[in-house]
Design brief:
The structure is a single chain. The chain has a single domain, classed as Lipocalin, CATH 2.40.128.110. The chain is mostly beta strands. Strand 6 and strand 7 form a beta hairpin. The protein is globular and about 45 Å long. The chain is built from one helix and eleven strands. This is Polyisoprenoid-binding protein YceI. It comes from Desulfovibrio legallii. InterPro entries: Lipid/polyisoprenoid-bd_YceI (IPR007372), TTHA0802/YceI-like_sf (IPR036761).
């Protein structure tokens, strides 16, 4: 069994939501962590566990971040963590595919499927460790998770696009 963990300095869990139907607002979760456990070298049996503390939301606008942490959106005091745990990985010979699993956010858990791209393994010239990256991307509806129910989609879009870019080394 091999276990890979992300390097926080070279990893990002980001999101994009539409504002007023005219512009995209970008943000991230400052402390996203990914663990990948697999017995098979082709990673088809991998289990991905991605977590982040919701209080770590960062859109580079402190008043907006505080609003997002409030009961109007993430209610971070009540729901401090988001978590995705995979159940199925489909990965083709080109190292792209999908990852399906349970996304738990705001007290709601739903099965989601995201696109997956896995880099080739290299030796990091800085630390001489094997290194690989995982890119997971897709979208979900915030209304499916009860996030911002009183905020109309005309103000903050219902569809939230997410991308996790995670550089990992053996744990």
């Amino acid at each position: 069994m091999s276990t890979w963990k992300n390097d926080p300095a070279h990893s990002r869990l980001g999101f994009v939501a539409r504002h007023l139907g005219i512009t995209d607002i970008y943000g991230r979760f400052a402390d996203a962590a990914l663990t990948v456990e697999a017995a098979r070298e082709d990673l088809t049996d991998a289990v991905f566990t991605l977590t982040a503390q919701t209080a770590g939301i960062d859109t580079r606008v402190p008043p907006r971040d505080e609003h997002l942490r409030s009961a109007d959106f993430f209610a971070v005091g009540q729901f401090p963590e988001l978590r995705f745990t995979s159940s199925v990985v489909h990965l083709g010979p080109d190292r792209t595919g999908t990852v399906t699993g349970a996304l738990s956010l705001h007290g709601v858990t739903r099965e989601m499927t995201f696109d997956l791209c896995v880099s080739n393994q290299v030796t990091n010239p800085m630390n001489q460790k094997p290194t690989i990256s995982f890119k997971v991307s897709g979208a979900f509806k915030r209304s499916d998770f009860g996030i911002g129910p009183s905020i109309p989609a005309a103000i903050v879009g219902d569809v939230v696009r997410v991308t996790a870019d995670m550089e990992c080394a053996p744990a």
